[in-house]
Amino acid sequence: MTAPASTPLTPYATLLGFTRYVDRTGPTKATFVGGLRKQRASRSGFNPHGQFVKALKADIAFHTGGTHLAGVVDVVKPRWRPLYQALVPGATAWLHSLGEPGAIDLAQTRDALAMLGDLPVKINPHFGVRHADGRVEAVRLHFDETPPSEESMLATLHLMARHMDAVLPHAEPVLVDVRRGQAHRMPTDAKPEQIERWLAGEAAAFRAIWSTAA
Length: 214
Hints:
By secondary structure, this protein is of the alpha/beta class. The protein has one domain (about 15-40, about 45-214). Helices cover about 45% and strands about 15% of the residues. The protein has 8 helices and 8 strands, in the order βαααααβββββααββα. It has helices at about 15-20, 25-40, 50-60, 65-75, 80-95, 150-160, 165, 190-210, and strands at about 15, 105, 110-115, 120-125, 125-130, 135-140, 170-175, 180-185. The chain has a 5-stranded mixed beta sheet, sandwiched between helices. Strands 1-4-3 form a 3-stranded mixed beta sheet. Helix 1 (about 15-20) packs antiparallel against helix 6 and helix 3 runs parallel beside helix 5. The relative contact order is 0.17. Residues about 1-5 have low confidence and may be disordered.
């Protein structure tokens, strides 16, 4: 009896995966996409930042100004403690930059599925922030040791803005570089049409590499 053929994995990327892909050049793009495909096939992957994000959201929701962030370092597993110790100072600085704790509230965001040509990309901000003056921000966190490149920043902010009606209506997309406590917004001179064309080309190449890696 012949074993059934395995269902081919359709090309797919998360916002994090796709923006890391556009940041790469040359042969490293193919290596990276191949790694994503293998990870998807094995359903592997672990997010070490889960407790950190919960603590940050708790500080916003309960107007506690950083006490949850300060405490999470002591409760996380020892292997992740150095990572959290590196993240907390910058995250706390960003939290304080938002103003008085009582002047901000946590806003619920929803995931969305973006189509870049034939490539589905999952748009998943970490949370939203609602300010007392009525401003709303959809926040995506950048945890890497290196700051976000201009390419990854533009791709992240553009794709979030493109689907903001589904993610958090009327919100501005913000990419927070956690380690440095810096918030990045779309440059005023950005040209959305050019970014869209660039990302469409990147998505087509991503799909081609994914298929080749099959």
